[in-house]
Amino acid sequence: MTDVLKFGGTSVGTAERIRDVARLVGTRGRVEDPCLVVVSAMGGVTDLLVGLKNSSSERKKEAAEAALHEIGARHRVALSGLALSADESRVCAAAIDEEMLRCRELSLGISLLEEISPRTSDALLAIGELISSRLVAAALRARGTDAVWVDPREMLATDATHGAALADEPETARRFAARVLPELAAGRVVVTGGFVGAAPSGATTTLGRGGSDYSAALFGAALKDAGRVVSAIEIWTDVDGILTADPRIVPQARLVPEVSAAEAAELAFFGAKVLHPATIRPAVARGIPVVVRNSFRPDGAGTIVRRDAAGTGVRAIAMRKGVTALFVGSPRMLLAYGYAAKVFSVFERHRVSVDVIATSEVSISITVDEKAALDGVVRDLSEFAEVSLLEHLAVVSVVGRNLRSTAGIAVRVFAALGDVNVVLVSQGASDTNMTFVVAEGDAPEALLRLHKEFFE
Ligand code: ADP
Ligand code: ASP
Ligand code: MG
Fold it and tell me: What's residue 455's pLDDT?
């Protein structure tokens, strides 16, 4: 039997935190049931790597140097705080030096070319997980736990979509059978980095920001496919579990003990950063429970995500900023047969994914991520429609079970919102969410009011 334990950036953010993780992992389970540990980059390191990438491509030499220095220092300071044996310390220091050298070479290459390919970007962004996971493995061995570091690129097979790679689940399971199961069978805890995989060519890929959660779920799935019993995938983070809202915006938010997979997926999609949107699918498909827990308070029970969870009604409220709305009107006023298909084919042609959709007799309103390239979309739509844009919006989503059939939810939502202006409304297609769009500046207030109405 194997548990998969994933530790996020804050859970491995300092030497002290890494030692806490080692203690937590080291004191669990029996030797016959070693776990698989997946770690994120140390908190803030992926952001530093993104900054390094940008300053390198803009040839901002001083900023790039400063980032390189800080990334190296973060890891070396952590290493020195781990109290490793001299041998272990030497090996870890050499690994850090090697990764930092690579980091410097990539940065130099980017600045020489003044451009960055998605493939180079992935090679650079992966460095945080490649180092942090080695430190965790060493910290485990330092307290006497038999642990082995495995390069995530030997474990996670993906396609070549750099920056947002998709897993090749059958190939990943084959690699688990060959590389991971023998280690577990020998009683060793396997430690690896999340977020990172390898394309068929062997090139380093990443799963997209927040992707270590997804790695953990994929690894749980691969273990099960390779024949191990997986009791749970535990996502260890810096809050008690999934809460009724983001506690950074709603301090009164409280723990949700249990959510269904559908609810968790909606919450993740609509901005609850605590779980990466794609995370649960591989786990749910195999009936493996996902548990979200607080590494700062390991005694708490956390939130359990199950295929089905008890209870109905509103479970939590999520919010995602950085949204732009397009209002696409038909000049002939009534929407003709085939009009919607024509509108959406423009989005498809430009590979822009649409988010919230609402229609009226004369127009279609669509929201997209503000980072999407919209020039081409607007140009093509303007050939047959009147298009207007509204920027700096946020999507707010009330998530729960049987929302459509629970009387009065919409009334309560709108009464609670009061004078907060709602730009667009969409009763979710799945009965698990009611979603609307407000100005970004109004979103925190909307969240506070809704929370008060449904949970306080
Ligand atoms: P990690 O580094 O462990 O992956 P993240 O920062 O990605 O952690 O996710 C945890 C954060 O998610 C929390 O600190 C919290 O601010 C945020 N968050 C947003 N919505 C929720 C929610 N509904 N419940 C819990 N946390 C939430
Ligand atoms: N380190 C990556 C990020 O910051 C992946 C993760 O932490 O899940 O996005
Ligand atoms: Mg995360």
Answer: 96
> Among 179, 203, 238, where does a domain finish?
238
Residue 247 lies in a domain: no
Please tell me the number of the ligand nearest to residue 194's CA.
2
Per the domain annotation, does 280 fall within a domain?
no
pTM of structure: 0.93
DSSP 194-253: SSEEE-TTS-EEE--TTTHHHHHHHHHHHHHHTT--EEEEEEEESSSSSBSS-TTT-TT-
Query: Going by CA atoms, what residue is nearest to atom 9 of ligand 1?
Result: 274
Tell me, using a 6 A CB cutoff, whether residue 72 lines ligand 2. Answer: no
Q: Which domain holds residue 182?
A: 2-238
Name the closest ligand to CA 273.
1
Range with the poorest average pLDDT among 49-63, 121-135, 267-281, 333-347: 333-347
From 45, 212, 295, give the residue whose CB has the most ligand 2 atoms within 8 Å, as the site to mutate.
Answer: 212
DSSP 13-41: SSHHHHHHHHHHHHTSS-TTS--EEEEPP
